[in-house]
Amino acid sequence: MWKVIKSLLFSLVLLLFLNGCNADSENQDLFQYKDSFVGDNSAVGNIVKQLQRGEHLAGFELKTKEKPYGIILNYDWSESENINKETAIYNATFIFALVQNADWVTFNFDNQEYTITKKDLQEWYGKELSEFKTEDELRQLIEEFLKNTNKVNQLL
Question: In the list 13, 58, 100, 103, which could disulfide-bond 76, CB 3.0-4.6 Å?
Fold first, then answer.
């Protein structure tokens, strides 16, 4: 009887451990941070770490002293110019959809820098980004626009 209890207890502890490890590795729903503010370091940090190339984020700065408010993202990674542009557009789109008072974002890659304003990006899409309610809707919009290289080059 004692062996059966020990086996069950060991199995329970193992399942709890594995479940805990799995929960940490899964991305959370980014839209839980909707309506965050540039000054909310924790929310912005959680957002940018879950975006494209988040594992290469070397740090970020929040510019909140005076309007317009912005975010600087520094990456320890660089790819081709096209990949960097796509990453900047993708990440800026999510930031502007989720962080209500973000007016601009600067992306510093190893050899390139891009600054995107909320106004320019919304004009480029022809849509108000704060109106999106799900990640899937936003991803579909981004993918549709990133297919057109001329349009991408027009923005950046």
Answer: 58
